[in-house]
C-alpha cells in the first residue's frame, strides 16, 4: 500500500528518471563514519554540499527527470532545504533497502521506463557515466555502478523487483556481491558501469580534495567546503598517520 505521505510524480516529462537517495542534513544522521575525523558541524556542512552538488549534477543531464527519495520523517525538511528544486518523495519503511524498494515501486508505477537510484555523495562523478548507465539500462534489466569498497553508487531497473534488495548487506563490503547474487536468482540481465568511489571516510575526502582543487566546477559547493574545513581534515589525517 502506498504511503499517504508520498506524492506521485506525474506526469513524467521523460522516460528516464534519476532518483537521489538522501536524508535530511542533521548531526548524527548523515556521514556518521566521518564523525571520528571531523567536527559534527563540518560533517553536516559537507553533506549539505554533497547533496546540493549531486542535485546539480543530476539536473545537468539531458532528457532526465530528477527526484529525491528520503525517509518519511525527512521529507518536509529536505523539500525546504532543496528549495523545491526537485520533487521529494517519502519512502515506505525504514532504511536504505526499503528506500531502494520504494524507488522502483513508486517510479515504475508512475509509468517511467528507466529508473536509476543514485547516492547523494558522488557529485564528482562525470555526467557521462550517468548517461552511459541509462544507455546500458536500455539494453539490460539491471544496471549497477560498483564502488571500490564492495558497494555500489547506483542501481537502475525498468521494473520493480521487491526481493532484489533483501539481505544485500547495504553499507558493507558485501553489498555489491549480494545484489548481484539476488539479480542472478531473479534471472535479470545485468550491465556494470565504471567502478567509482563515494564519500564515506576521511580517506575518500583526502582523495577528492586534489581532484576538486584542479577542477572545482565539478562540485563547486563541495570544493568550497574544502576551503573552509580542509585544514581540519588534513590535521586529523596527519595525526592518524603518526
Short description:
This protein has helices at 40-59, 75-81, 95-109, 127-137, 175-185, 202-214, 220-241; strands at residues 16-21, 65-70, 88-90, 114-118, 142-146, 152-157, 190-192. With 242 residues, it is an alpha/beta fold. It has a single domain (16-200), classed as Spore Coat Polysaccharide Biosynthesis Protein SpsA, Chain A (Alpha-Beta Complex).
Describe this structure in words.
The protein has 7 helices and 7 strands; from the N terminus they run E-H-E-H-E-H-E-H-E-E-H-E-H-H. By secondary structure, the protein is of the alpha/beta class. It has a single domain (16-200), classed as Spore Coat Polysaccharide Biosynthesis Protein SpsA, Chain A, CATH 3.90.550. Strands 3-2-1-4-6-5-7 form a 7-stranded mixed β-sheet, with helices on both faces. Helix 1 (40-59) links the parallel strand 1 and strand 2. Helix 1 (40-59) crosses helix 7 and helix 6 (202-214) packs across helix 7. The longest helix has 22 residues, at 220-241.
Strand order of the largest sheet: 3-2-1-4-6-5-7
Uncertain spans, ≥5 residues at pLDDT below 50? 1-10
Query: What is the average per-residue confidence, as pLDDT, rounded to a whole number?
Result: 90
Superfamily (CATH H level) name: Spore Coat Polysaccharide Biosynthesis Protein SpsA, Chain A
Our measurement of the CA-to-CA distance between the termini, rounded to an integer number of angstroms, reads 54 Å
Strand content: 5-15%
Number of helices: 7
Helix content: 40-55%
Q: Could you name the CATH class? A: Alpha Beta
Shape: globular
The strand count comes to 7
> What is the count of structural domains?
1
Amino acid at each position: 500500500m502506498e504511503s499517504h505521505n508520498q506524492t506521485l510524480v506525474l506526469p513524467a516529462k521523460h522516460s528516464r528518471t534519476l532518483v537521489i537517495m538522501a536524508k535530511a542534513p542533521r548531526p548524527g544522521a548523515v556521514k556518521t563514519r566521518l564523525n571520528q575525523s571531523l567536527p559534527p558541524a563540518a560533517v553536516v556542512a559537507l553533506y549539505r554540499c554533497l547533496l546540493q552538488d549531486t542535485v546539480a549534477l543530476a539536473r545537468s543531464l539531458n532528457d532526465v527527470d530528477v527526484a529525491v527519495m528520503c525517509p518519511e520523517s525527512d521529507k518536509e525538511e529536505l523539500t525546504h532545504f532543496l528549495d523545491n528544486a526537485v520533487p521529494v518523495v517519502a519512502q515506505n519503511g525504514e532504511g536504505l533497502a526499503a528506500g531502494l524498494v520504494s524507488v522502483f515501486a513508486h517510479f515504475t508505477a508512475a509509468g517511467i521506463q528507466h529508473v536509476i537510484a543514485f547516492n547523494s555523495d558522488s557529485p564528482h562523478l562525470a555526467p557521462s557515466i550517468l548517461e552511459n548507465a541509462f544507455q546500458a539500462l536500455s539494453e539490460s534489466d539491471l544496471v549497477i555502478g560498483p564502488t571500490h569498497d564492495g558497494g555500489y553508487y547506483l542501481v537502475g531497473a525498468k521494473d520493480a523487483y521487491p526481493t532484489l534488495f533483501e539481505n544485500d548487506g547495504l553499507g558493507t563490503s558485501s553489498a555489491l556481491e549480494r545484489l548481484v547474487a539476488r539479480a542472478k536468482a531473479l534471472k535479470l540481465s545485468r550491465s556494470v558501469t565504471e567502478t567509482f568511489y563515494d564519500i564515506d571516510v576521511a580517506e575518500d575526502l583526502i582523495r577528492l580534495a586534489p581532484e576538486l582543487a584542479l577542477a572545482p566546477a565539478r562540485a563547486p559547493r563541495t570544493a568550497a567546503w574544502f576551503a573552509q574545513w580542509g585544514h581540519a581534515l588534513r590535521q586529523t589525517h596527519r595525526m592518524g598517520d603518526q
